[in-house]
Amino acid sequence: VRTVRSAGIDTCVHLGVTAEPRAAGGRATMKERNVLGTMQLLGAAYHAPDLRRLVLKSTTAVYGAAAGDPAVWTESMSHDTPRHGFGKDAIEVEDYVRSFRRRRPDVAVTVLRLANQVGPTVDNPLTRYFELPVCPTVFGFDPRLQFLHEEDTAEVLLRTTLGPAHDGTFNVAGDGVVLLSQAIRIAGKPPLPIPEPLVNRVAELVGRTVDFSPEQVRFLQYGRVADTSAAAGQLGFTPKWSSLHAFEDFASTRLRRLVTEEQVARLE
After folding, report:
1. CA 61, CA 52: separation in Å to the nearest integer?
2. What is the mean pLDDT of residues 116-142?
3. Which of these, 45, 43, 36, 44, lies nearest to 16 by C-alpha position?
4. CA proximity to 148, closest of 183, 180, 112, 118
5. Which of 35, 86, 183, 203 could form a disulfide with 19 if both were Cys (CB 3.0 to 4.6 A apart)?
6. How far is CA 191 from CA 2, 64, 100, 221, in A?
7. What is the C-alpha to C-alpha distance for residues 55 and 157, in angstroms, rounded to an integer?
8. pTM (2 decimals)?
9. What is the distance between the alpha carbons of residues 121 and 119, in angstroms, rounded to a whole number?
10. Is the per-residue pLDDT at 164 higher than 60?
């Protein structure tokens, strides 16, 4: 509180919600940082008299992934599917942000629900999944996925931080969708179909390498697609990279570089 008061901040951008429990030191630590950390940040921001804008980097993971999901999620749809993990944390974080908005109606609050990010420098559980020698899939499922290029992530954050202030919640993703089978082919990896009863066991093994959570397994089984018309119409933001082109850039840069580095290491 002393810091935000003395600094005279007018804008707060909250980027500190993590999706990787192992990297955070365990699920309990991850939840503490995500949820309690947000409570502490907003508690301090409430006392910033000059604050006029709050931007939250959220995620489309708030919608979860389940068999009965709608074909396309809009921002106003109910989304109580995630009951644990990163998606649950993101829902709670958004709830606290909405509560802050009610207590500080003078502050414009922008919530950006970003699709899964990819790009030349992105290192997250999903990109590490495509770095595996083979990509496990759920037999009989070929979900639709959306991606957001890291350049578009930076651009939408800059626009909502430095441009006109916008109240509201906005899905942000590259145009179009990519089937999981299509993404695996672009990544140049062989798929490994797993019967559904064995998926959780295989996910435990994969999780030792890529910090995979059960909700990410469901994402790769059922997929998730979010409507982005509000971001285009109200924010005036349309990603430069489509979902397909964003993933192709990731595959041709980061994946290719990692393969080259592995080949060099073997020669050494």
Report:
1. 27
2. 94
3. 36
4. 118
5. 86
6. 54, 24, 45, 13
7. 8
8. 0.91
9. 6
10. yes
